Amino acid sequence: MVRRTSVRTFRSALSISFAAALLCGVVGGVAGAAARSSAKSALSIASVQTFSGATSSFGPEQNAGCLTAEAIINSHGGVMGHHMRCVPVDTRSDVVDSVPAVQKVISTTKNLVGAVGPSSTTASADVPLLNAAHIPMFADTGQTEFTKKFFKYFYRIIAADDSVGLAYVIWAKEQGFKRIGLVYVNNSSNQGAVPGVKAAAKALHVTLAVDQAVAPDQTSYNSEVLALQSSRAQVIVGTMDPQTAATYLTDLKNLTGSLLPYYSEHSAAEPVFKGALEGAIGTTAFVKYYRSIHPASVVGGAAFSLYKKTVLGLNIPDPKQWINDPYAQGPYDAVNYMALAMLEAHSITPTKYAPFIVSVANPGNGKKVVHTFPQGAAAIAAGHKIRYVGIYQGVVLNRFHDSTGGFAVTKLAPPATTSPIGAVSSAKVASVSSKH
Amino acid sequence: MNGSAIVAALGFGIVTASILSLGAVGFTLQYGMSNVFNLAFAGVMAGAEYVALAINRSGVNIWICMALAALFGGFASLVLNKFVYMPFIRRGVKAFGMVIITLSVWTVIQYVILAIVGSTASSFRVSGSHLYVVGAIRLNGTQLIVIAIAVVLLLLLEAFLRMTLWGKAVRGAAANAPLARTSGINVARVMDVTWFISGVFAGVAGVALAMNVVSFTYTTAGGFLVVLVAAAILGGVGRPSGAMFGALIVGLATEVSAAIFNPAYKDVTAFVLLAIVLVAKPAGLFPEAVQRKEVVL
Questions:
Q1: Taking each helix axis from N to C terminus, what angle separates A426-435 and A194-203, rounded to the nearest 10 degrees?
Q2: A276 vs B121: CB contact, 8 Å cut-off?
Q3: Where are the extended beta strands (E) located within A339-416?
Q4: Model pLDDT, residue B296
Q5: Buried b / exposed e along A294-308 (16+ C-beta atoms within 10 A)
Q6: Looking at the DSSP assignment, which residues form a beta bridge with residue A210?
Q7: Got the DSSP string for B128-170?
Q8: CA-CA distance, A47 to B71, in Å (whole number)?
């Protein structure tokens, strides 16, 4: 009996010891794992963009900028010990696909701390989702609905579409054109610049010879081209998707025997746009007639040099095509703004670091101006307040977290990059804007 | 809007109608024979575009490329019906289920093409084309050849259907397959021939479309499918001659409306027209005598 009791006591003691050891092990293991996770887990930046569908070139373009920033940040120790990683989220140019994709990345991605994108085709649906999830985003949309509607976590360093419209007309007038043909595709992605064009034409006393909304992806635009010709327009301004622009310009060339200068915000080196236009009208004509009017970015200096060197070292297809691409450079700056804001806030929590984005972007007394993430990280570590001035120039975020800097005018420099030929300053845009 | 612009638009409308009729006739042939509303028709068109492109890039004349793409279209269409659709039909999938299957096949084809060629736009190498001006009508040499090809192919098809034994067999099998079978017609063989011919039309339509839009991607044919189906339905789906007429109406209406009204709504014009016609004649302008219910095995 005693023996049995003592055996039972021994077994109980053994069981308790084993359970305690197991519990300690498990708890310790979990705690250790959590600690390791905390030390090593990567911070995710959702690259919300169209990776398939009609504008599928936008995804690799944006991601190139994100990956470049990721590479630089990670090679300099990351953000407070965390590495960054860009997570592609394919919106497929359609809200039907983008909403579940964005919801999925919000609910399943560990340490989602920010986003670049979305673009115009899905921004109206995606921005509120990201905003409600408290994810700071640098949107790739010029839609004017975000110019005066406040979203706490929405930031934009590319120009609003109405400003782009102003820039088209300002540049056209500076080139001596008096009659403008406004041609654009009738969808949300392509008609944002229309109010700006109309306002600027009125303010600058330039004649709007034709105001032509065209249906996308038609078999031909011959009737539209004849209307353009009869309007005696001297230059075409407005945004068309690559296929529509290619068909329209080819019809113009075939029917009239010549082309007109064409301004839009598509980068001349954007692969799909460039491919479509070069295939349609030829490289020589594309270089001669097409002008991209896009947010001004620098060529040269510390910001550009580090970006260029890093992007060329990325393991992605044909990285050199992104060197002068403003829509790859913008996301690069965006990730740097977020990473530096985290450092200033001493927090990777979006709700805590987001207010510091404006501080990092805008000028202020005593701020040390930095041009790269390593410079910024070093300055913050030395106790300075910083202002990051990246590749995009003149970024100043207003109370809607929106910035309209100046514009660069570029043309294709064959085979796959661009060369600057002029600029439209933010002061000129503001001046014309104030007249309407 | 002056009269000359409308006359010019009529000329452009004939070009659009030519391309549209090639596609609509091919589409309606398939439906007329099998009762399969084949949305993957656009996949065959897109495949033919890229076959032609691959050959064209090796320096072959575009019109030879079009002929080879037409053959590709024929075989692709035949294979699609025989090895993809028929197994489903044999298992008892009904007409509506087949629409979903064809949609799925189209999606798969689209993404296979995307994986192979990427999303970058492509263009054919076409030698310079002279502009011909007759009054207000202005058409270039390429457009005139496309019109000629459409007219010749459509006439050949009508002659085939009306003047040959095979044509009679096609019409017989399309009207009543079981009866045709008991009359000694090899319906399976007739179906193969029909799907091959319809694929040839898809191939030619795809290349003609790609030439006309100049710069095309893997989505170009898909975007065209909606108008193409509208033309086929307008004419009375299942009737090749009806599809030709439907294409002519849609082509002219879209171009003339672009010249008169806001060109942004030229597609809308086609669909408003379709709605009006279908209210008056629910089976299209040239309805079939046979009431179709299910897919044909």
A1: 80
A2: yes
A3: 368-370, 386-388, 407-413
A4: 58
A5: bbbbbeeeebbebbb
A6: A181
A7: ---EEEETTEEEEHHHHHHHHHHHHHHHHHHHHHHHSHHHHHH
A8: 43
User: A-chain residues within 8 Å CB-CB of B205?
Assistant: none
* Cβ pair A290, A411 in contact under 8 A: yes
Cβ-Cβ contacts under 8 Å for A84 (sequence gap 6 or more): A42, A43, A44, A45, A69, A70, A73, A74, A78, A335, A339
List beta partners, residue A185: A214
Please report the sign of the dihedral spanned by the C-alpha atoms of residue A265, residue A270, residue A272, residue A277.
Answer: positive
CA-based nearest residue to A272, from B216, B112, B206: B216
C-alpha A404/C-alpha A430 separation (Å) is 9
Structure tokens at A326: 């403003």
> Would you call B215 and A279 a contact, using CB atoms and an 8 Å cutoff?
yes
Pairing mode, strands A262-264 and A235-237: parallel
Which residue reads 């007219």 in tokens?
B151
Residue A216 DSSP symbol: T
Contacts of A186 in chain B (CB under 8 A): 264
- State whether ipTM is beyond 0.90: no
Task: Find the residue in A nearest to B128 (Cα).
Answer: A254
pLDDT tens digits for range B147-205: 999 999 999 999 999 999 999 999 888 888 889 899 899 999 999 999 999 999 999 99
CA A247 to chain B, closest CA, distance in angstroms equals 5
Pick B12's closest partner by Cβ from A213, A214, A220. A220
Give the DSSP H/E element, type plus range, for residue B17.
helix B3-34
- Inter-residue contact B198 to B27 (CB < 8 Å): yes
Query: What pLDDT, on a 0 to 100 scale, did the predictor assign at position A36?
Result: 38
Cβ-nearest to B263 among A52, A224, A246: A224
At A293-330, the pLDDT tens digits run 988 877 778 999 999 999 999 999 889 889 988 899 99
pLDDT digits (tens, 9 = 90+) for A8-64: 444 444 444 444 444 444 444 433 333 333 456 999 999 999 988 667 778 999 999
Residue A88 confidence (pLDDT): 96
* CB proximity A210 to B under 8 Å: no
User: Residue B121 and residue A222: Cβ atoms within 8 Å?
Assistant: no
Nearest CA in chain B to A216: B264
Count each helix (H run) and each strand (E run) in chain B, helices first. 12, 2
Which parts of chain A have pLDDT scores under 70? 1-40, 53-54, 436
pLDDT tens string B86-130? 999 999 898 899 999 999 999 999 989 988 988 778 899 887 678
C-alpha span between B131 and B30 (Å, rounded): 36
Percent of chain B residues topping a pLDDT of 90: 50
Cβ-based neighbours of A27, under 8 Å, separated by 6 or more: none
**Residue B107: closest C-alpha in chain A:** A53
